[in-house]
Amino acid sequence: MSAVERVVAALRAGGVDAEVRRFDEPVPTAAAAARVLGCDVGAIANSLVFDADGAPLLVLASGAHRVDTGTVAALVGAARVRRAAPEFVLAATGQEVGGVAPVGHPSPLRAVVDVDLAAHPVLWAGGGDHHTMIAVTYTDLVRVTGGLEAAVA
After folding, report:
1. What is the per-residue pLDDT for 28?
2. CA-wise closest residue to 141 among 101, 105, 106
3. Among 65, 76, 62, 37, CA closest to 138
4. What are the sequence ranges of the domains in the chain?
5. Considering only the top CATH level, what class is 3-150?
6. Distance from C-alpha of 120 to C-alpha of 34, rounded to nearest angstrom
7. Are 99 and 127 in contact (CB under 8 A)?
8. What is the rounded distance in angstroms from the CA atom of residue 66 to the CA atom of residue 55?
9. Element holding 136 (H helix, E strand)
10. Which of 74, 76, 102, 105 is nearest to 88 (CA)?
């Protein structure tokens, strides 16, 4: 099963029938995805994996924001939160940086969801590879990830 198929299966298992779009060119950044989708960069839900005291932490952040790792560390009770190395991300998610989805990982990740994403009726998130995006609502994103809703910027 491909990474995209695992993402779709995880969404369906969570009761979400997400729109899946595949692109000829990679969409590895929020700006690139927003341009191709014709949406506001703030409607892109970046699936960012951090190393929180050695454990993976998924932060679903608006593409319009830069994550404040100090704020996130305080939210999750970690001494240190830092951007994870690509190898760490791949091991935790089964997906490469630039294509990480909010779900479909070998095991569920602790997650934090940027509350500013709630301002958008439709969110676009990575679909498991560099060419795929999925459309979800904020409510569904929080539900399927079990994420803590918080300000992360």
Report:
1. 82
2. 101
3. 62
4. 3-150
5. alpha beta
6. 13
7. yes
8. 21
9. strand 132-136
10. 105
| Token pair in block for residue 146 | 């079990």
Tokens of 30: 């929020």
The 8-class DSSP code of residue 130 comes to T
Report residue 92 as tokens. Answer: 């935790």
Q: Which residue has the tokens 């014709």?
A: 38
Q: Report which of 45, 61, 54 is spatially closest to residue 121, judged by C-alpha positions.
A: 45
Which amino acid is residue 41, in one-letter code? Answer: V
Q: Report helix, strand or coil for 30.
A: helix
Q: Are the beta carbons of 99 and 28 closer than 8 angstroms?
A: yes
Place of tokens 């009770």: 77
Helix or strand or coil: residue 93?
A: helix
pTM: 0.95
Q: How far apart are CA 21 and CA 153, in angstroms?
A: 28
Which residues on neighbouring strands pair with residue 11, listed in sequence order?
A: none
SS3 16: coil
Rounded to the nearest integer, the mean pLDDT of the chain is 96
Sign, CA torsion 96/99/102/103: negative
Condensed to tens digits (0 to 9), the pLDDT of residues 106-130 reads 999 999 999 999 999 999 999 999 9
